[in-house]
Design brief:
By secondary structure, the protein is mostly beta strands. The protein has 3 domains: 75-125 and 137-196, no CATH class; 208-299 and 308-438, no CATH class; 467-764, no CATH class. The protein has a 37-stranded mixed β-sheet that branches.
Length: 765
Amino acid sequence: MKMSNSLKKTVYIVGGIFAFVLLIHFGVNVFIKTQLPRIIESRNDTAYDFKYGNLSFSIFNNSLSIEDIEVTPKPGVSIKKDIDFLGTVDKISLIGVNFKELFQNRNLKASTIAIIGPDITVFKPEQRDTTKTKSKLGSVIDISRISLKNAHLKMMTTDGQERLQELYNINLEVDGVHLGKYTQDKDIPFTYTNFKIRCDSVFSKLNEFQHIKTQAITVDPTHLDLDQFRIIPDIDRTTFKNQTTSSNTRMDVVVPKLRLTGTDWGYLDNKFFLKIGNIQIDSINFKILDQKKQTVFQAAKKQAEQVIQPLIPFRVDIDQIQIEKSSFNSLKILDVQNVNIQISKISNREFQHLHIEEVLLKNPVFTHFPKKGSNQPSQENRLEILDDVIEIESLKIENAQYAMKDLQGKKNTLEVADFNMSLSQIRIDDKTVKNKVPFTYQSPRLSTGKIHYNTGRFYDVYSNGIKIVDKNLEIANIDMKSKYSRAQHVKMFKLADDIYTIHTKKILLKNFDWGFDAKETFYLKTEKVVLNEVFANIFRNTVPPPDMSPSKMYSKKLRDLKFGLEIPQIQIVRAQIEYEEVDDKAIAPGKLTFSNFNANIKNVYSGYGRTKTPKTEIVVDAIFMKAAPLHVVWTFDIMNRRERFNIQGKITNFPAISMNAFLKPYVKASAEGTLDLVTFNFSGNDDYAIGDFGMKYSDLKMTLYKKDGEKKRKLLSALGNLVIRNDTKGVTKETQIKQVDRMKESSFFNYLWLCLLQGLRQTVL
């Protein structure tokens, strides 16, 4: 079968075109392989040598590939001055390139660009060139897919001696890349339809003494997954303390897994924004290892810069952050374990506010390790310039446990179970950050379970819990007990002292306020304190030698307090107070009791920061020795440096036999008769006291005993009763007592007893 002439002509034309294309194809490849390296070498006036192993071009699918690429510094070139990068690439492949568009209009349009196996080292320039350069390509770039496979990138210092950043095995795919005249002037000068990035591990130098390290990172338009994030110190504590560093905090941070979902980011009105639906973090372990004061140079630099940076320099919206079973340790002083953190609705607007709807901490276990001369951050490290406002609508701590250790870090000195707290409307701004408590808040709520406080050598304090609602505080069932029996406790005293046993059913503080003043000194103010149903036993054994050090008057104790204290009223309701005393000659403890004790105390102030205060007044009503009503009014002025005071009172219808519980074991005497009225009105100071004493009594009779407290001394008793005036005939006998000198080593109540004793001597004898 013979072909027609027209068919033959067509075959010849097609064959000729195909042969021509093949000729061009092979010609171009021969040119590329033989001549292009020479051209590159002859025209290369850069500081780099550029080599490649194979370069191929296909006219059939518009593809170009380059293999075994190597970019290295030319011999004799200074890396520090002339070199920005070096490295190798296994292969660069371009498929579906529109070469006509590329050569005529310099617009790059391609199906795929693949960069395989790049190993690039970049050198950080000494000065960053911020001048924008015009692209040598045209105004349009359209690439269906850009891929980067098995990449290794490293950034070094300018001299190439220290590693700054390193990324291992990077794999990247970006689809639908477009750059045009509407995108090229934007902050992100191109658009894309989809992307995916994966990196096996990352190293980043955080500063001169710490680095960041991670394992796998995966990123796509809506997710970010990160494994084994770490901040690792490169130097030990001694080196850190002795060197000048750009940061004053050395830390160790471990985040096993972090996941971001529902992510979106970009630019709105030429400003960057970031939106995240949810951040999930698995068990952060955060340790602040050391902090130090800023140097004079750092302080001067901070003052000179005077540039206020935003807290977060772009718009952020996060629906929720969840952090599971995490731990935190600050300078080995505060340790937090097993805390679950949930933060809801975070919104940041640059230079405006950072707003958080709720911060919730669940099940934290707090352990506090107080240290002498601890390396806690000083006020020099405090943030004092803030142009943003931080607002937290609600902060809650639920089901926390708290323990404070002793200075050796072994025993618990304070334990608080089931600690719950909430604060609302927390605000941090440029004014609050200058304060010791750097924020304001409203509606405080606090409740606890059982509390145990180990005061040290002698006492334990227990409570069923504390409750705070707004500005009212309630403490339930407080007990203070000695750790030892009385005999053991007394043996531990080098000098005579009191042993206390105290129980209070409830303590209330109404409308209380606390904080720090302009000099950063603590203050406590409360409208009223109420102590309900107090039982207090005070026991003293005089076998140990007396303490001869001066005992301060109460006015001086209040005046010398080093903080602000302001309590207009204290009420003690339905209390019982017992005082027991024994010495080696006593046959049993002498005991004084005050039952149904009610006190109203006004104007309890400290002298800190004051030149004048209202007088302190203490009004007491009680039943003395379970037998007779007692009324006392005691006043003093804490600002009077001579410690002036006045105390007056009366006892009515007191059967003398009720004193025998104290008189018989202690002074080996007993009394009979009735004290119809005892009055006293003493005024004094730190040196001496004078005043009036009065008694009305009948049938007063005394009995004296031998050392065993059982056998009577009949003769001495009879002689004593002859001396004693046994009856005032229904008239109150009043006398002005002789001056009583204060024993400076004894308490105020010993001082009062000496005044009463002087009145008894002058009245009865």
